[in-house]
Design a protein that fits this description.
This protein has 343 residues and is α+β, with helices and mostly antiparallel strands. The protein has one domain: Jelly Rolls, CATH 2.60.120.330. Helices cover 29% and strands 22% of the residues. Pfam families: 2OG-FeII_Oxy, DIOX_N.
Length: 343
Amino acid sequence: MVGFLNKTHTTPNSSKNMGSETPTKLPLIDFSKIYLNELTPDDWNSIKTQVHEALTEYGFFRASMAGMSSEFQSSLFSSLDQLFSLPSETKLKSISDKPFHGYIGHSPTMPLYESMAIPDAQVAGEVEAFTNFFWPHGNPVFSESVRNISDKLYWLDRMIRKMIMESLRLEKHMDDHMDNTKHLLRVAKYQGPDTQESIMGLVSHIDKTTLSILYQNEVAGLELESKGGEWIRVEQSIDSFTVFVGEAWSNGLLHAPYHRVMMTGNEARYSLGLFSVPKPGYITKVPDELVDEEHPLLFNPFDYDEFLKHLFTGKIGANEDALDAYCGVKESELTTYSKSESK
């Protein structure tokens, strides 16, 4: 996931490798009426309310929508298996000087995890360029499958961000927000550890994105930390997407949760994540409408790309929250803060 490099996170329950043994009912929101253009204004408002409530309480929900056929799902995950089965020397050729854009291979801290990225996969030609890099003679099944899921993820991302902006009464900022957002699609594989002992697949982290939407196969592993510090195993369904909200843009009104991947057994977990982030040079600033005495300013204005560059310099300690260390408002700043000073 984009932005997983931050402080080592522990909670009273974090010594337990597995999530809660008692299933916790996490929100599942159906977007099919919107996707099929069959909704009424009341439907939109109802779904928007569900989104707001889920992100306030959990910072997370599962989203379902029409058009996810079994044939499509089989083709997609078969294509991902084909990609990650390429020789290591081939995958290592996917390099980039931009954080999180190149191939990330197995590491001592995450030996089961590897991933690759396709910037702006919703833009015509980007998926084909990625495909042709690995298969010079083309791979139509791979490119069609990835382009199809990218279109669905991109559509869902825009709908959810629009609902968030409306629910926070930020309509006047809508165009600015939408126009200054870019996307990164990451495809990932978590190798099964061949043991019933739970092994870390992805370290506990809060996404530094605006919004993250995941689509994965039915191999379990994703866990979410509740506000009470309990790790909850997220039910896997091939018919739904997993949505996480980032921490900076809502000034704490929406809950950005810690989450991780814990793997058992011998089956591989495949996932695709669409991550929406601010464009380079755009200054992310908490809107004045979200700041008052009850909700003091949490983050100073910042450039997301500059934050990522700073993150990779190693200047932020391993036990620090990266975003808070970079642009968090200090207590001394809060004592003199007023809305007029934030402009």
